[in-house]
UniProtKB/TrEMBL annotation:
Protein name: Restriction endonuclease subunit S
Source organism (scientific name): Culicoidibacter larvae
Record InterPro entries: Restrct_endonuc_typeI_TRD, Restrct_endonuc_typeI_TRD_sf, Type-I_RS_S_subunit
Family to which the UniProt record says this protein belongs: Belongs to the type-I restriction system S methylase family.
UniProt key word Zinc: no
Lineage of origin: Bacteria, Bacillati, Bacillota, Culicoidibacteria, Culicoidibacterales
GO biological process, one term: DNA restriction-modification system
Keywords: DNA-binding, Endonuclease, Hydrolase, Nuclease, Restriction system
SUPFAM superfamilies in UniProt: DNA methylase specificity domain (SSF116734)
GO molecular function annotations of the record: DNA binding; endonuclease activity
Top-level lineage group: Bacteria
PANTHER family listed in its UniProt record: TYPE I RESTRICTION ENZYME MJAVIII SPECIFICITY SUBUNIT, TYPE-1 RESTRICTION ENZYME ECOKI SPECIFICITY PROTEIN
Length: 348
């Protein structure tokens, strides 16, 4: 085991193409999913202004807003956004199969955040990123480690498929329960607060002020995770509010269990009746996520505007119906957790 710099075992690919770009699959920063190592979305046969080439096996690192933790392995040759750094393994120093896990790593992202420059859209350069230091075993041990990590990732994918099937069951139950229920505008049943970004000099990681959430990168299974704080909040959500991402990806939701500041990528939504009804809104929004996402507008970054969100039609369910659906959805969540715990026990 020896300590190395990232730049000693990998390099930035600087290959470009300005002609015949239509033949390449296109990857933008929006196609990289936070904390996911596998690329699952891209575009094809589309005119674009991108010139940066990547090759199969390269790591695509989201250099803009590194706190979003975007880094995936490329499954094919393609062309990508300038906000993506293309990283190529030096195979005599590090196994290409292991490099994605070195990059998609909290320690590296923390390093990248510290080296980023810019207030609204901080970016990190390869010249800084290559100075990240980490422990690296010999090639034989790298092979064992890579095999283990890919096995863990496969288990994670199995769990994600279960989540998808369980969510489809909840969606079917929602449709069955409320297909004949009258619809009303969201703003008749809930208070909606659109987020607003405070000045960047008030951002901090030292717990000064309120927790600050900018978008869905801070979301988890149900409750938002605190990563950043704001000492001069402009828009404040209450504990128990539903937080909805109103900028790509549009429509994803979480709950907040504490008073917090929300940036322009989020909206806070709370029932006009009582906080206990927020749980119904959370699960209803999850079921309606595709519909909400389809309301997104914009040529570069999709977003849903205030008028569209206020006018979103919701089932005007009575208290008993809401409680029934909440109970069903919560049992679904419990099933996910139980299966995840079983998988962890099996892995152990």
């Amino acid at each position: 085991m020896s300590e190395v710099f990232l730049g000693e075992v990998a390099k930035e690919r600087k290959e470009t193409s300005k002609e015949n770009k239509v033949r390449y699959p296109i990857v933008g920063l929006e196609h990289l999913i936070s904390e996911e190592i596998t690329l699952t979305a891209w575009e094809e046969n589309k005119e674009n202004s991108f010139t940066k080439i990547f090759r199969k096996g390269d790591v695509l690192f989201g250099r803009r807003r590194a706190y979003l933790k975007k880094a995936v392995v490329a499954p094919f040759d393609g062309i990508c956004s300038g906000d993506i750094t293309v990283i190529q393994a030096l195979p005599d120093k590090i196994l290409p199969e292991l490099l994605p896990f070195i990059i998609q790593n909290d320690a590296l992202f923390d390093f990248a955040i510290g080296k980023s420059a810019g207030s609204l859209s901080p970016r990190v350069k390869w010249e800084n990123l290559k100075n990240f230091r980490f422990e690296l075993p010999d090639l034989k041990e790298q092979s064992k480690l890579a095999s283990l990590l890919w096995s863990i990732d496969s288990t994670k994918k199995t769990y994600q498929k279960l989540i998808q099937k369980t969510d489809e069951l909840v969606k079917s139950q929602f449709i069955e329960m409320f297909m004949n229920t009258d619809r009303v505008r969201l703003d008749t049943m809930a208070v909606i607060l659109m987020g607003q970004s405070p000045t960047s000099d008030s951002y901090n990681f030292d717990a000064q002020g309120l927790p600050f959430y900018q978008g869905s990168a801070d979301f988890s299974e149900k409750y938002v995770k605190t990563r950043m704080y704001c000492s001069a909040p402009t828009r404040i959500a209450n504990s128990g509010d539903v937080l909805m991402s109103v900028r790509a990806p549009v429509g994803t939701v979480n709950l907040t269990d504490k008073e917090c500041c929300i940036g322009r990528g989020l909206a806070a939504i709370r029932s006009k009746k009582s906080q206990e009804y927020n749980e119904f809104l959370l699960y209803a929004f999850r079921v309606m996520e595709d519909k909400i996402a389809s309301m997104g507008q914009g040529s570069t970054v999709l977003s849903i505007n205030k008028d569209n969100l206020h006018g979103l039609l919701m089932p005007n369910a009575d208290k008993h119906q809401q409680e029934q659906f909440i109970a069903f959805a919560q049992q679904s969540d419990k099933s996910k957790y139980d299966y995840f715990s079983w998988m962890l026990g099996g892995a152990a």
